[in-house]
Design brief:
129 residues; alpha/beta
């Protein structure tokens, strides 16, 4: 099964930022091919240092040892480890003025918005956050 997730939530809505990565990791761990496309405010999560500072503020967002709250970046790394691919909208990157060296290493590519549309049409499921 192929799943495409459109991530438009970002730093302005921190309480919405952990669940998409958690769900993506679960699906990928259960043999789904999962791609996340970042657009709008979600694109801001791709800049180095941003997601590391965002705490989702949910009581179930604790680290494995149960002592430290996980950041959104921790959830992003979990999703990557599970095999989720991350892509950003080129137009959103350009609009924010981000340079490739400013982006997190987990990003698999920067693609035009049309690429999201094509992949979404080929997917079995499309989820938007």
């Amino acid at each position: 099964m192929k799943v495409v997730i459109l991530m438009t939530s970002g730093p302005r809505t921190p309480w919405r930022c952990a669940s998409p990565f958690y769900i993506a990791a679960l699906m990928a761990s259960n043999d789904a091919e999962v791609e996340m496309f970042f657009n709008m405010d979600g694109t801001r999560l791709l800049k180095k240092g941003v997601a590391e500072k965002i705490l989702p503020a949910e009581p179930n967002c604790l680290s494995v040892n149960g002592k430290k709250l996980k950041t959104v970046y921790d959830f992003m790394k979990d999703a990557k480890q599970a095999g989720v691919k991350f892509y950003s909208c080129k137009q959103a990157i350009d609009a924010l003025g981000y340079k490739p060296e400013e982006l997190i290493p987990e990003l698999d590519g920067i693609v035009p918005a049309s690429e999201f549309a094509l992949r979404a049409m080929e997917a079995d499921k499309v989820i938007t956050f």
